Amino acid sequence: MPWIWDSGELGRAIQSERIPYAATLRDAEHGTTLVFVERPGHERGYLVGAFAPEALEEGYADPHAPRSVVVPPLSGRAARAITDRFLPAYEQAVHARRMAVIAAALESIHADYGGWQAVMASGRSSNATPLSAAALGAASEEFLDNSWRSFLTVVDHAQPLMVRCRPASSPWPTDAETLSRLADGVVAAEGLGVEVSLGGFVTPRERRARAWPAIETWLAGGETFLRQARLSAPHRRPALPVSAPIRSLSAGHCVGRSL
């Protein structure tokens, strides 16, 4: 259940019914995994929904989740319903979820940044206690470490959205320069992350010094990115041609696993 990414009938059915047969349909190129089950309480028909994309982790109760669709026991019509109705809605949901994750991460960094600036300006903690130079340095290190962890979320999700942005055809064509700087920041952060994960010797001080310029760039340009991403509709897949004769899908013969 935690990995079912659905706001429709499939999610409700899996919570309350035993599903005797299910199959997964995976598109390796796009990283999409659908789940296909017999529709509980009906002699004919199937439900098709999705598992949460790997990068987005658990999907249960996510308000951005797409709605599952009911498909008939006819292979051609079922395929067309999935291609024409469900997959576009799924891709739009992924787009919206990635945007929400990035916006939340940037908001968290902004809030921490404001708190850190207040401490640095006053030289006092949140309870007005004076802080030593060592304590101020520790507060800065903690802020930068927390910001880096939040920024990794931006790095994980920004690239798929950035490739869709077309500032030249938007009301803000000059956003292209900002998007270029944001992309450079993501590349720099990705390189640093790979270096650290592969065991490269990067001291905490060096890591913070290299990470902060990318974070600062996104704090300045994050709203520009989000407004461009809102205009960028997800890629719509072409309708699947049905060249083979329509065949009935026999109920009860899906090879899969019990849920």
Structure description:
With 259 residues, this protein is an alpha+beta fold. The protein has two domains: 87 residues, no CATH class; 138 residues, no CATH class. Helix content is 53%, strand content 9%. The protein contains five helices and five strands, in the order βαββββαααα. The chain is elongated and about 75 Å long. The C terminus is likely disordered.
* C-alpha Rg (nearest Å): 23 Å
Structural category is alpha+beta
User: How would you describe the shape?
Assistant: elongated
**Uncertain regions: pLDDT < 50 for 5+ in a row?**
239-259
Tally of contiguous helical segments: 5
- Order of secondary-structure elements: EHEEEEHHHH
Amino-to-carboxy terminus distance: 9 Å
Percent helix, as a range, is 40-55%
Q: Which secondary structure elements does this structure contain, and how are they paired or packed?
A:
Layout lengths: L3 E2 L3 H8 L5 E6 L4 E7 L7 E6 L17 E3 L3 H48 L10 H30 L12 H23 L6 H28 L28
Antiparallel strand pairs: 1-4, 2-3, 3-4, 4-5
